[in-house]
Amino acid sequence: MDRPPPPLPNLGRWSSWRPRVGDGSPALLLAGVALLELAQTGPLLRPETVLALVQTLPLAWRRRRPLAVWLAVALGAAVWAALGADGSYAALFGGPIAVYAVAACVGRPMSWLIFAATAIGVVAAFPLLGRPVPSVDAALLVAVVGTAWVMGDAARTHAAYTAGLEERAASLERSRQELARRIRLEERTRIARELHDVVAHHISMIAVQAETGPYLVTAGPEQATEGFAAIGETARRALTEMRRLLGVLRSEPDGSPALAPQPGFDDIPDLVAEVRQSGLAVDYAVRGEPRPLAAGVDLSAYRIVQEALTNVRRHAGPARAGVVVEFADRLIRLSVVDDGRGAGSDEGDGSAAGHGLVGIRERAAMLGGTVEAGPRPEGGYAMFVTIPLAPS
């Protein structure tokens, strides 16, 4: 029997501690070097050791509390200078590091004041240590502190610039997603309106056939049976289209156009002829045995071919297109292929090609179908749509 694999380590906990380890390691390293220096000049149990630790260990909190860390380091350095005690060269790095942290994490006016206070403190410490001012050492230390401030300020500026770029990129991504959502909503609304007209047409037919029912009854049982069978068939078609319409909201009911005959499979040859007149060479073929289609499938087949040919005409350039409608046992396949330069656009953008492909996908998905579209290896663009003839 196979043993279960060992549990994975808790990487999330390490991720939360990693920034603290990164901040604390330099502080501990600097404190360790300072202690080694002091150990070479005398015992560690003396005030200089405490002052060295005060100037180094707080650096572990330099990014979270930069002003407090700078104040601790500055006080340690001031006490060390006032006592005139022997110090550590490693501890002297605490001041520039604290100034860098302030410049990187705090606004420029405050960081400038901190730099000025540090530079004045460095110059003032030399007389307390019995060294002449001005001197090369004092100028060198001030230059080191100034360099630390410049580097920290540059890091803060770069971080702010990067954050601004990320925010703009996030805003653009949100806008792109919102645009894609609006495009899908518009397509679904347009499809819903067309299907609404189809369903309304069926309901109207049911009403007309029901009104003729009394006359058919008086005409004879055979005519009445045929009439009620027609009502039942029309009602079933209306229910089928209504199921496809569920979930698609029809907005702006006021001012909707009047009911009109919708195009279908039988109108595709006229569509192809119209496209040919616009200058695009189109080959059209029907495979299999054509059969009557449900109103929603009939309308969508026409609209899908129409959208695909529109994309070819707009984006393929000088090209030749081929349209094939294939009737299989329980489904219909639509193929639109061209040898041009391809649509070259993502369906999520706001271009016409993207808009049309979104509509095609919405129509196919509403009918339980699938869409495959993309550039062809030999050049051009291909789109294959499969739609089941029976409602899913």
From TrEMBL:
Residues 299-390 form the Histidine kinase/HSP90-like ATPase domain. Pfam families: DUF7134 (PF23539), HATPase_c (PF02518), HisKA_3 (PF07730). Residues 187-252 form the Signal transduction histidine kinase subgroup 3 dimerisation and phosphoacceptor domain. One of its GO terms (molecular function) is ATP binding. The keyword Aminoacyl-tRNA synthetase does not apply. Its EC number is 2.7.13.3. SUPFAM superfamilies: ATPase domain of HSP90 chaperone/DNA topoisomerase II/histidine kinase. The keyword Membrane applies. It catalyses: ATP + protein L-histidine = ADP + protein N-phospho-L-histidine. GO terms for cellular component: membrane. The chain crosses the membrane at residues 66-83, 89-107, 112-129. Residues 13-157 form the DUF7134 domain. Residues 162-189 form a coiled coil. Keywords: ATP-binding, Coiled coil, Kinase, Membrane, Nucleotide-binding, Phosphoprotein, Transferase, Transmembrane, Transmembrane helix, Two-component regulatory system. This is histidine kinase.
